[in-house]
Amino acid sequence: MEIKKHFGVYGICFENGKLLCIEKTRGPYQYRFDLPGGSQEPGEGLTETLKREVLEETGYSLSSYSNPRIYDVMVQEEGKNFAVHHIMAFYDIALNFESSQKSIPQEVIDGSNDSAKAVWLDLEEITKENASPLVLKVKAELRGFPDLDMTSYKNWKVKEKKENK
Question: Considering the entire predicted model, what is its pTM?
Fold first, then answer.
């Protein structure tokens, strides 16, 4: 089986017992809760990617970022003859609410963005059925049980319609 690699940079904002997530609109995690973040553009540093992606997907700029760490998962979509080794750089982030755009920028709502909106979730609301593997890694970490080993998801089901919450 072919293994494809994907690397992304993601922000973790956990405030007042809630995790900042996005509602994913495409890809293997569509119609699930995911972390704000994504792929680097050519020549972009990790924190530049983090700042850009969080702004594009949530409308919030960052006031700070810290605590970089790496996790990974292997995801094989149901019916596919390849798997994706998803390597993720996570940063703890704090949002700048005072200079926020309050909404996703219009130029990325045209389909070039894969986030419908930002949502704040209690950890109890996050399940394997409604969240991406990234959010599940963060949930384990926030509960004090970080899963440092690569997690494999065989026959990952891509949702066809919105079934969150």
Answer: 0.89
